[in-house]
Amino acid sequence: MKKFIYLLGIAGFAVVSSCKKDRSTGQDESNISKIAPNGFSFKTAKDVNLNLKLLTNNNQPVAGAVVSVYATTGTTPGDAIYKGVTDASGNLKATLNLDASFTQLILDPNYIGLMHNVKVNINNSAVTATIGGTTGYSGDVVPDAANNSAPSAGVLGTLGFNSTEYAYPSPYTATADAVVNTSTYPTNLGRPVYLEATPDVIDNSLLTYINASLPETQSVASKHPEYLSSSATSNINVTATADVWITYVSEGAGYQNSLAYYTYNTNNPPSATSGGTSNNGINKITMVFPNASGVGSGGGLRSGDKVKLGTFNAGTTIAFVVLQDAWTGNGVNLNKQKFYSDSRLNPESTAALRKHSVVLYDDVHKLYLFGFEDTNRETPSTNPSNYNSDNDFNDIVFYASANPVTAVSNAGVAQIDKNGDTDGDGVLDVYDAFPNDPTRAYVFYFPSQNGFAQLAFEDNWPTKGDYDMNDLVVNYRYTFILNAQAQAVTMQGLYNVVAAGASYHNGFGVQLPFDASTVKSVTGQRTISNYIQFAGNGVEAGQRKAVIIPFDNHEAMIKNPDNSYFINTLNAKNKVQGSADSVLVTFVNPVSVSGLSTSSINPFLISNLRRGYEVHLPGYAPTDKATTAFFGAADDASLINGRSYYTSRENWPWAISFNDTSFKYPLETVKITDAYPHFAEWAASGGNSFTDWYSNLTSGYRVNSNLYSK
Asked: Less Cβ crowding at N or C end of the chain, within 10 Å?
């Protein structure tokens, strides 16, 4: 409200009541200049139905996996825009509230044995996808492209007396012979022709052990320091004649690495990576997986694919080497960085940092699990894009099996982590954010752990204002604590008033999509004006649905030092930093997350301490405390001729919501159309055109001189 004119109690009510419109359809609106079609709700976000299934390589469901959803701009963990948990059938079904301009998403199951950072298309407001299974993926998944560079020279070296030979397994002598070239697996995927005919089944129990031992993005040095001890074995030491196989599990890398092996007499390990046996170097390096990337991730491997290395005599050590991002699409680039399971051969300056692999024994499945770190752990500048190692040792995960298994020494080999469930809630500790609390298991955020969503209000309803959309601007974030059944136990709202460009003193409320009696307690609300009545559990009294009031007057959150109006809407005045308000809602019984979707939460402004004057987003219904006589009064045309709630006769809104803070609100008295030239076109199209009208930084989208810039 920009004018210092206040409606006077009963007189004001009588005026707007006498002006109340007939909400029936069929009125002549030919003389009305509308900014948008009737019924447009001015949503900058859209609901997208996610239907995801996770499967093992033999089509068994992967239950309890935490899936993060990201925008395609990045996958930093704190920027996940949604997190969910797969059910007992391996399914994750959710309604995601996303920026309307999104056409793709990234799904990350964060689960070893499955694809990571999977790009998917949004089709008809839905994403339907399967990750895993015998085919690797299906549905709306967009597979990563494989490398496709020119053939690399020197893939095959010379016999290793004075140099190290690089070779494919006999009888294959070149990439063209050694990799599959079919319509399903073209050459550039690098799928070996020498795979065993029958792949291994990698069951849920093994995947659980692997994920407990080498969880994604968690440092092994912190999670399992014993794996990296100086006495820990990192190779296969054969003590009796045995056949040995290598089975691919998964890769958590962004590179298309190559995996190879070499052997030597256990009592005479090489001291150099090259130079051949005459120089105590490695004699021969043989490719196992020329492209150790999975189907859909730029490679042709499927979980369970298996290569027989051969038959080895007692006293033989089998060691491994990863060639970083060496697969070119036509061969292996031998000039790339190499990291060895023999840590003494690696480039870092300390023994601890030279460790690049761990090996663990699984006495249930009778195998030796290997996990590799594929980047220089000390000098990021040697890695592509200066990547800093996350030290999770799961960039390539595979296992060795032997017949007989007793022919491989267990000396110095750590035991695989079979995980536990300390609090007995059914969620394994590795996935449990609260491993000692059976009532809590997961933490999810909206819009993300690090980000804020935003609400921008006009406060003059039911009369039109100046449409600078800065009378009250609130940034907010929700944190949901879920139990093992993925039901919400608590909901915490963090609210921050960033602007109050009004002479009115406005409050702010949030209606939740369930009965008031479902709430056990509400704490943290700020009230200084004494016009809100609260029930014993902290929700607003007299409401059928649960309504919380984070603050009843914006001055409880932010004030100009001189007590003047127009806070943070004039570039000529100093910017004021408000204090955030944290409101914690605890439920009597855990509530379904599907019933607590963010698009079902109904925020509203309370205009100038007058409880009946509620300003909601277009299309959202008023609460029980709203004065319904104001609908159809003055400039309001709610529900008239197919309009949404809280829209004017010209179909202007009184509030707009954003899923981030990329909207920079206009300066005082500057109409939004004068700050964002494509706003009107977006509205006129019913939201189909210029969906990025507020976030696009390209020339022509913003008039920066009309935006608050401090």
From this structure: C
Pairing between β-strand 104-108 and β-strand 118-121 as defined by DSSP bridges? antiparallel
| CA dihedral sign of residues 51, 56, 62, 67 | negative
- DSSP state for residue 686 in the 8-state scheme: T
DSSP annotation of 395 reads: S
CATH assignment, 45-142: 2.60.40.4150
Mean pLDDT (whole number) for 373-397: 92
The DSSP string of 423-468 is T-SSS-TTT-SSTT-TT--EEEEES-SS--EEEEE---TTS-----
> In angstroms, rounded to a whole number, what is the distance separating the alpha carbons of residues 426 and 439?
11
Given a cut of 60, whether residue 6 has pLDDT beyond it is: no
CA-to-CA dists, residue 652 to 432, 608, 624, angstroms: 46, 21, 24
pLDDT of residue 151: 54
- Listed by start position, the domains of the chain span 9-31+456-463+474-654, 45-142, 165-415
Residues 102-128 have a mean pLDDT of: 95
What contacts 691, CB < 8 A, 6 or more positions away? 44, 99, 100, 101, 682
CA 667 from chain centre, in angstroms, equals 34
Q: Within the chain, what is the greatest distance between any pair of CA atoms?
A: 103
Helix or strand run (H / E) with residue 675: helix 672-675
Q: What percent of the chain has pLDDT over 90?
A: 83
3-state class (DSSP) for residue 646: coil
Q: Distance of alpha carbon 323 from its chain centroid, rounded? A: 29
Confidence of residue 462 (pLDDT cuts 50, 70, 90): very high
- Coil/strand/helix, residue 351: coil
Tokens 């056409």 belong to: 103
Residue 497 corresponds to which tokens in the numbers above? Answer: 């008033």
CA 522, CA 87: separation in Å to the nearest integer?
Answer: 30
Task: Tell me if 47 sits within 8 A of 125, measured CB to CB.
Answer: yes
